[in-house]
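User: quick one, fold this
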Amino acid sequence: MSYKKDYERQVKAILTNAYIFEAVNLDNVPLPPNHIFTESAAWDTGAEISIISPRVVATLGIKPFAETSIMGVGGDERVGVYKIHVGLPNGYLYEDLIVYCSDIDDYDILIGMDLISQSDFFITIINGNNHFYFQLPATGQIG
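Assistant:
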């Protein structure tokens, strides 16, 4: 399942849509009632772990299963650790993604290398315009 987004300019961030769900058993539930749809899913190759915003945590009403310390731009921070499902713009549902919660400006989720490294992923520029592509599950073939 692939996804391609063509921009008519050079961009500073790759933003897509995503569904974010509480990590529940999906055997008998096609779309859990406890979910949000966002247009501000940022793909961040500089983030080792995916991060959700406090707004997402509050909207879903989810509780952390652990706490940890992370080193971010603002220094060392103690954060909650959560398990979520993420519906990606290519229609793929990534289940049981472990994420941290931190203030990530205007984004609802930063999709980090924990997810990106499992996909075929590229960004290129042609005639001053960026083009973004990813495929998950990965096949090793782009196009």
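User: anything notable?
Assistant: The first strand starts at residue 2 and ends at 6.
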